[in-house]
Every structure is written in C-alpha cells, then in structure tokens.
C-alpha cells in the first residue's frame, strides 16, 4: 500500500474478455469498487438481548465514468459489445505502483450509459457485478 495519500488519477480499472490481457478502460474520470458481506442473523435466546450475526456471502460491484473516445483500446462501444454479448470480463482494480493494493477477478457488465449534452464532451458510465472470488494482492 502507498505510504502516503495518493492522487486518484493513479487508480485504474482494467478489463478484458481474456484473463491476463486486461487493458485500461480509456479516458475514465472515476472508478469505484464496492464490496459487501451479507450478515445473516444468528441471534438466540443466549445472546443476552444483543443481535449476533455470522459472515455470509461476499459480493462486489465496480462502477466507472469517463469520456468517450472511440480510438481507446477499451472504449464505450467495446464495453457495449461486452454487455450485449453477455461477455464475462476479467478485471484489475488498482494502481501500477509497486507495493500498492490490487484487486482482480471476473464479472459481468450490468449497465452502460452513454450521454451527450450540447457543447459538452460525450460521457459514459457503467458498472460491473463481480462473480466468483475477488483476489487481493500487492503489486510487485
């Protein structure tokens, strides 16, 4: 992990339809990973009036926003094709700095939106629902 607070520009989202060949999603302006743990209730009469839970199913979602540039290797049109074709995507979420945290795994695009306002850059946004194991690692 970085020793100091770092600039959000350094945090990247890479995706690919083939594991091991992930490429940056082009011109992103933001990306977010959200992880959650379902906590089934395990309260009994022996709980002393306090709620008890157990760790359940872990799930996650990645959301992103950016500016449309169809010359990017991973662009809004290609993301649209992934969604329409129900393509399983492999992802990496992290920086390229040695010692920093990296999350990797697989998922499916569950939304993609392209928006164009008059006299403004065309933008896109979307989200990936993670399926299977999320693997945390440290960048070598």
Care to describe what's here?
With 140 residues, this protein is mainly beta. The chain has a single domain (8-38, 53-138), classed as Elongation Factor Tu (Ef-tu), domain 3 (Beta Barrel), CATH 2.40.30. Helices cover 6% and strands 46% of the residues. It is built from one helix and seven strands. It has one helix at 76-84; strands at residues 12-16, 23-24, 28-37, 58-67, 88-94, 101-115, 123-138. A hairpin with a 6-residue loop joins strand 1 (12-16) and strand 2 (23-24).
What attributes does this structure have?
mainly beta, Elongation Factor Tu (Ef-tu), domain 3, 46% strand, globular
Judging from the principal axes of the Cα atoms, what is the shape?
globular
Derived from helix and strand composition plus strand pairing, the structural class reads mainly beta
CATH topology: Elongation Factor Tu (Ef-tu), domain 3
Write the H/E string, N to C.
EEEEHEEE
The level-1 CATH class: Mainly Beta
Compute the number of helices.
1
Q: Major beta sheet, specifics?
A: 7 strands, antiparallel
* Strands in their spatial order, largest beta sheet: 2-1-5-6-7-4-3
Which consecutive residue ranges, at least 5 long each, have pLDDT under 50?
none
Number of domains: 1
CATH architecture: Beta Barrel
The overall pLDDT, averaged over residues, is 94
Q: What is the first-to-last residue Cα distance?
A: 11 Å
- Backbone CA Rg: 18 Å
Helix fraction by DSSP (H/I, runs of at least 4): under 10%
Task: Draw up the topology in text.
Elements: E1 12-16, E2 23-24, E3 28-37, E4 58-67, H1 76-84, E5 88-94, E6 101-115, E7 123-138
């Amino acid at each position: 992990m970085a020793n100091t607070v770092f600039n959000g520009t350094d945090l990247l989202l890479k995706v690919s339809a083939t594991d091991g060949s992930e490429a940056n999603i082009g011109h992103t302006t933001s990306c977010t990973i959200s992880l959650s743990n379902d906590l089934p209730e395990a309260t009994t009469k022996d709980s002393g009036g306090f709620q008890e839970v157990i760790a359940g199913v872990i799930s996650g979602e990645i959301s992103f926003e950016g500016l449309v540039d169809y010359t990017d290797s991973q662009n809004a049109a290609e993301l649209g094709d992934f969604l329409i074709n129900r393509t399983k995507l492999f992802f990496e979420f992290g920086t390229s700095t040695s010692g920093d945290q990296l999350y990797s795994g697989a998922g499916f695009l569950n939304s993609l939106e392209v928006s164009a306002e008059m006299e403004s850059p065309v933008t896109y946004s979307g989200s990936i629902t993670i399926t299977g194991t999320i693997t945390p690692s440290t960048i070598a």
